[in-house]
Amino acid sequence: MKEDKKKLLAKVAYMYYEQELTQAQIAKELSIYRTTVSRMISQAKKQGIVEIKINHFDSALFELEEQLKQTFKLKAVELVSNERDASEEDQEERLAETAGAWLRRQLTEEMVVGLSWGASVGNAINKIEPKQLSEVVVVPVAGGPSHINSRYHVNTLVYELARKLNGQSLFINASVIQETKELAEGIFNSKYFYKLKDCWKRLDMAIVGIGGPLSYQKSQWRDLLTAADFKELKLREAIGDCCCRFYDSYGKALDGSLNQRTIGLQLEELAKVPQSVGIARGRSKARSIVPLLQKGYLNTLITDQETAEEILRIS
């Protein structure tokens, strides 16, 4: 490239990036077309005359997000980097902050939002800053935990998110696991449940946690399962749960007595929600996350770097 051409490209780039002139202003001052200015700015970057450095941006993390999106055909992925020597509490806190900020950006007017519950979802909801919206409805997509583990009760989370969004909330007055199939069916078919089921059909977004393998110790609700339930799940090789619905490593929902006694959105219904968001982290949960992504039950994932790397390694 001729020296005078390089000089002109450099001058255009300086005026645009350093002096912050508009392309129209540059065109007028240099007596050239605005389209020419646009072309020259692009050429200056290609020729290395302009080098753009983005601070506070981890390109490796971005590439990992893109790899996950491409591998599982996801709508969105939001990753948190893993800080060296960070405690579990610190990592959970950073995940919650990232999830809360991302969710707030997506929440808009007139949305119907469904929530499951648990530590990851509860922590994310707590981090969402208030946002004045109109005609937002927030509903639970699974029954509540037992009285023993009620810290992240779904009704509490539903109320809190609706309050922050200036929205309405519906509650679910039943534990997630009922004693019999007949009791569960009675609740589903009761008059008070009609409006909730209608909202499930109109969900714009579902925000859910992901339960790990049966050996995973942090469950908020599995004390409701009977010994027979655990035996059946083990025999059928349950790998995790979502909306309190268990599935195997192929993503097959495990139907049976337990599933028929469960009050919650079915995985097939979750897959129909326009934005189905899973929030979870931990290498031990990676095997539980993969089937949900492969089967398309979730189209959005918020997790951390090491979990993402493990998901790609085993998928």
From TrEMBL:
Domain of life from the UniProt record: Bacteria
Domain Sugar-binding per the UniProt entry, residue ranges: 61-313
SUPFAM superfamilies: NagB/RpiA/CoA transferase-like (SSF100950)
Record keyword Transcription present: yes
InterPro entries: NagB/RpiA_transferase-like (IPR037171), SorC_transcr_regulators (IPR051054), Sugar-bd_dom_put (IPR007324)
Keywords: DNA-binding, Transcription, Transcription regulation
Transmembrane regions listed in the UniProt entry: none
PANTHER family in the cross-refs: TRANSCRIPTIONAL REGULATOR LSRR, TRANSCRIPTIONAL REGULATOR-RELATED
Family membership: Belongs to the SorC transcriptional regulatory family.
Name the record gives this protein: Sugar-binding transcriptional regulator
Species of origin: Enterococcus viikkiensis
